[in-house]
Amino acid sequence: MEVGSKVLCRHALSSSADSIIPLWHPGVVDAILHADEVVSVQCTPCSSVVECALDKIVPLPSESQSLQLSPSNAIPIEPGNSSTSFEKGDLLSETFTDDEPPSEWLLNPTAVSALGEWEKHTKGIGSRLMSLMGYVAGAGLGRRQEGRVEPVPAYLYPPGVSLDRCMELREKSGGEDLLQVEKRLKKDQLREEKRIKREEERISANTSVFDIINNQLAGPGAKKDRMKASKDSVNVDKSHLKTNSSKELNLKGYQLGQRSAQLEREIVHLSQSMARQAPRDKEAAGSIQKRIDEKKQELELTNRAQARVSSEQNSRREKKKYDIF
Length: 325
Fold this sequence. Notes:
This protein is of the alpha+beta class and 325 residues long. It folds into three domains: 6-132, no CATH class; 157-206; 237-325. It has helices spanning 125-132, 163-173, 178-205, 209-218, 220-233, 238-243, 246-277, 282-324; strands spanning 6-11, 23-33, 38-43, 49-53, 57-59, 83-84, 93-94. The protein has a five-stranded antiparallel β-sheet with strand order 4-3-2-1-5, with no helix packed on it. Helix 7 (246-277) packs antiparallel against helix 8 (282-324). The chain is elongated.
């Protein structure tokens, strides 16, 4: 709080009929006397400078507008009483029991909309009745203004959907229309499923354009020979490895190394995909995790086969050294 700050000060107006009862009024700080713990405030309603103790001052945030309280609609505060009876024609109004006003009196600058704001399109009977009962615009509901400041929002839920699903959509909506949110979530899920399917097809095919041309030109008999050759190329049984030439062992080692590197890349890619899907779709994340486990098992088998080929190659090198002598 500094000179020029907007505050609420509690004092009795000399022009008011109820001058004995201290009221809360808006004002601007004129001077601060730290030694006496007194603040000089220029009261807005009466345009006079009054001195108030620090416990009778409530600073107002600079972002929000000052509370426009006038002697005609200000709320009297009598310590020790929970209610005050007025003369005929006045309503029974509850007041605060403490000298200090609650912090909920201050306007909330982050509020989405004020209570009764929609009544600008109507006659505003509800707002006027609340004002007569002592409600201050921008303050919270309740006797001590500790209630809600913003109006209760209205939500439009899609028909024929369970309440649990509606709550789930509400959490994911982020303020959007729930019908549009549901359509967007379904669209995102279908797009992700198509992407995963395309990735699976690309990985499973792993076929170049030259392989397709060779398949078409070779004829049906070459397919069996190619399958047999492919089966022999991945056979890493110890007895079969002994019958392979050094050139065939080098080829097998190269193919197994390439396959191992490819599996590692696929595992990294699937792990990233699962991390993106885990918060949104548990079912898709579980399917991806299953594929990751399969890839890891295949990688382990590939590494074992590569180790067998390397062992056979090392044993042949050692044998060749001894043959020299």
